[in-house]
Amino acid sequence: MRLAALFTLATATLASAASMPGTWKKLVHNQFASNAQLTVPAASTKTLSDDKVQAWNVHTLAEFPNYRLRVKEETKLCDPNVKQYVGYVDVTGKSDDKHFFFWFFESRRNPEKDPLVLWLNGGPGCSSLTGLLMELGPCRVNPGGNGTTLNPDSWNNEANLVFLDQPINVGFSYTDGEQVSNTVDAAEDVYAFLQLFLTTYKQYANLDFHVTGESYAGHYVPAIGHKIAEENDALKRNRLLKNSEKVEVNLKGLAIGNGLTDPLVQYEYYADMAADEKYGPILDDRDIEEMRSKYPTCKRLIESCYKWNTAFTCVPGAIYCNNAMIQPFQKTGLNIYDIRKKCDPSNPLCYSILTDIETYLNRPDVQDALGVDRQYEGCKQDINMKFMMAGDWMRPFVRDLPPLLAKGIRVLIYAGDSDFICNWIGNKAWSIELEWDGSAGFQKAKDLPWIAKSTGKQAGEFRTYGALTFLRIYEAGHMVPYDQPEVSSEMINMWIDNRKH
Hints:
Its EC number is 3.4.16.-. By secondary structure, this protein is α/β, with parallel strands linked by helices. It has helices spanning 4-17, 24-35, 50-54, 129-135, 183-200, 217-238, 263-266, 270-275, 285-308, 311-326, 352-361, 364-370, 381-389, 401-406, 424-433, 439-444, 480-483, 485-496; strands at 57-60, 67-72, 84-92, 97-105, 116-120, 139-141, 148-150, 160-164, 174-175, 209-214, 251-257, 334-335, 338-342, 410-416, 448-451, 458-465, 468-473. A hairpin with a 6-residue loop joins strand 1 (57-60) and strand 2 (67-72). Helix 1 packs across helix 10, helix 5 packs across helix 6 and helix 9 packs antiparallel against helix 10 (311-326). The chain is globular, with a radius of gyration of 22 Å.
């Protein structure tokens, strides 16, 4: 979440800008400034007192001289029965500083042996605390934001779990300088965080590690996996040449839920999703045929982005394709993240619980416990715009996956089948078309029923070969852990333990 924040709020303006390259940035800025403001409580005026500043435990690493880890280790919010760490990675820049917020929970089962899982929400520009308090975290926010309730299906049942607010200015993360506007730079900061965290808390350094996320994390997760593997290889090569405080991250797997990973393939299947009869069709034949007729132009624009990988060649595809494939959905009044439902008018992103999360995280007592003094917003449209205008949207981060698969790093692509914005049809299509060592075997593999042990019923269907698995999850939208908490918990536990389906 929240890819469609851009799609549903700005496509008309972007379409008019397509023929006027010089005005793209101004038009997009005006659209966001006028139509896309989220409703949040008034900003907090409190500041952290000196004694609270001194309560931080500060850790550094010589090989990352501009970074430091600042941690509070006594937090008891959300799940008071497990060890928690909250804090910031502070980055000193040449002209500005950056501060990335994180929240860590130990496993409820066996923290000394259970894997370490990193969760990232998408957007780009949305806080991973959405995942914590709405989806897969140890607790779920109560209606009205007056507290939380333990989540029995949390992903920390069998994993140590960390939520990171990235890129900068997302959620409680902040900077007074320039924002990150591309996935590659964001991955650099995530890797530095992992090194600081794992060298500080060495009890987790040798655990299996998994990078997980949803939506625009279909960009983030492959890029972070690529960065980790690249740095691990460099550490192995240089181990005999010099001493290094850095650790090899024990990367075992990636999991992407309803992600945007291979736009070239995925954009072709919006029309098929609109015509799919399980929950629809949701558009009439004329609209669907018009979408199909526009895909060849969309394809040519994305191919140009894949070839040249510059803002100049990538922004046009985002403008044209989003208008052609997403705008027809706007007239339905349906929730673009779950076509079974109408969009909840109480929140611009269709879910009232997002307002509850903002209310809860802006409470003074909660902010005191977390050691923060920032106004929390779940999603920020200016970050979304910056990524789009940098050409990041259509770039082929799918290309980071074949080398990882070749190393035996397992990749799970899962998708709730009532999501429109990153629908299961497009996600399955690109996983089948992916060129890697096991392509032929994956293409020939059969789709098999997945029977959830928690319900005894068929919860979806999967295809697997070698290190790659695609899983379609029934009766779930963009945020699978929100719609199917028991099933999603069983899914991730099977995945990280590498159990057979």
